[in-house]
Amino acid sequence: MSFDLVFFGGTGDLTWRKLMPALFQAFRHGKLPAGGRILSVAREELSDEQYRAWLKERFQDVEGAKRPNDEEFARFAELLHYRRMDLSQPADYLRLKSWLQGRNAHTAVLYLATSPHLFPMICEQLGAAGLNAPHIRVVLEKPLGHDLASAQEINRVVRSVFSETQAFRIDHYLGKPSVQNLMALRFGNALFEPLWRRESIANIQITLAEGLGVGTRGEFYNRTGALRDMIQNHALQLLTMVAMEPPSSNDADAIRDEKLKVLRSLKPFTEDSVARDVVRGQYRPGSAAGQPAVGFLQEQDVPAGSRCETFVALRTEVQNWRWAGVPFYLRTGKRLASHEAQIVVNFRPTPHNIFPGVNQPNKLVIKLQPEDGLELHLLAAKGTNQQEALSPVSLDLDFDKAFAENRVGAYERLLLDALAGRLNLFVRSDEQEQAWRFVEPILQAWAKDSAGPRPYAAGTWGPAAASALVARDNFAWDEEQ
Ligand code: BG6
């Protein structure tokens, strides 16, 4: 299958930090379909050779084992091309069209790795140039919009040019191997399904914690904040995967229909429930990896007095028969105590305890970061003494060890899926809009609330109010258990 893959924003951070290294891995593993061309377009005037040299330089920053050696890069570079493009100029799209027509590949994937405010204009220009034939797909990188209205406007324009099956809205968390394994665990095994409900589960916690601060992205982050950057997309997508009903098939729409139902079942926020069930925070000076770290307000390009949140914790419920009354706690933040992303399913305690001492409920931990894995926490007897209390033990599955040969990173997986036309791991427009509908009352309530985000010291688990949110239900965050 021949393909053309075009990156708009070809010299941008996302392209060289994530997309090109992911493509290179696919190339190295022999997964990239043969007969492909990769074209980067951007404003700079560069020849193919200059672009290749520039990218080779950038690749020096790629993590050791994933970095190509000279010979590998030279082979990969044969696929790489570069064209200057002014995205507001119709003539430049016509030039792109003739480049694509020059070879008539089976598939053309146009990846919009630009600032999202350009998406409507790019899509309109693509449509006007006739670059929307059925074999053409468009990949839209998050964030898609900054609220419901802007997301709807982007979707309206995208839909006026491309059909829904040509639009690949990316949420790279869906490409993470552990998220795939969550589907496998739930729908490829019968073991957990009878337990996967309110009768057996006490609460579910989704934590997406980062140790890093906002770094050089202060300007972007200050406009965005943690709610839009992580909760509206990544955290809610994970929630849908945990809470969805079994789909009737592995088809994209069967899965996305079920995910949409979950989003529609989320308890809507009101001004009062935002005040009660949502905690926002902003990091102050503290420490990171044992070194002093500045606060958000001291970061580069962050304006004085910014009220942007770098931390959010919230409590929600999925209002249906399976989940009624089960709290779902979502939490994300920058400059937290550790870099970890995980979903913790806390089961209910045994109804009657015949063993002295511990009665620690079971929990299942789906780990997304820093490593992929599954841990099932049980109680076991050491076997030395009848009277001895039970001890907590865990069954650990390390996916990196179990499947060492075939590990595929999130962007690699999603790029290959976009080339193959598989939509399962991409977000449909109605899901995305429903996710905005869920977070919008929070944005509105915050805009009215003069209190602003609560401070927390860099290197901690966020404001104390986040612990109180969970303690109110007589639970605790995983690290406090
Ligand atoms: C991105 C956010 O979508 O996800 C970043 O914009 C965040 O702020 C990143 O750092 C986290 O992704 P990962 O895969 O490193 O957990």
Overview of this protein structure:
It is a single chain. With 481 residues, the chain is an alpha/beta fold. The protein is built from 14 helices and 17 strands. The strands form 3 sheets. The protein has a 9-stranded mixed β-sheet with strand order 16-15-14-13-7-12-11-8-17, with helices on both faces. The chain has a 6-stranded parallel β-sheet with strand order 3-2-1-4-5-6. The chain binds 6-O-phosphono-beta-D-glucopyranose. The site of 6-O-phosphono-beta-D-glucopyranose has 5 residues, from loops.
Give the tags.
single chain, 481 residues, alpha/beta, Rossmann fold, Dihydrodipicolinate Reductase, domain 2, 2 domains, nine-stranded mixed beta sheet, six-stranded parallel beta sheet, globular, binds 6-O-phosphono-beta-D-glucopyranose
SSE layout and pairings?
Elements: E1 3-8, H1 13-28, E2 36-42, H2 48-58, H3 70-77, E3 80-84, H4 90-101, E4 107-112, H5 119-128, E5 136-140, H6 148-161, E6 167-169, H7 177-187, E7 201-209, H8 218-243, H9 252-265, H10 271-277, E8 278-284, E9 286-288, E10 291-293, E11 311-317, E12 327-333, E13 340-347, E14 363-369, E15 373-380, E16 391-398, H11 399-402, H12 410-420, H13 429-448, E17 454-457, H14 464-471
Parallel strand pairs: 1-2, 1-4, 2-3, 4-5, 5-6, 7-12, 8-17
Antiparallel strand pairs: 7-13, 8-11, 9-10, 11-12, 13-14, 14-15, 15-16
Helix pairs in contact: 1-12, 5-6, 6-13, 8-9, 8-13, 9-13
Bound molecules: 6-O-phosphono-beta-D-glucopyranose.
6-O-phosphono-beta-D-glucopyranose (BG6) binds next to loops.
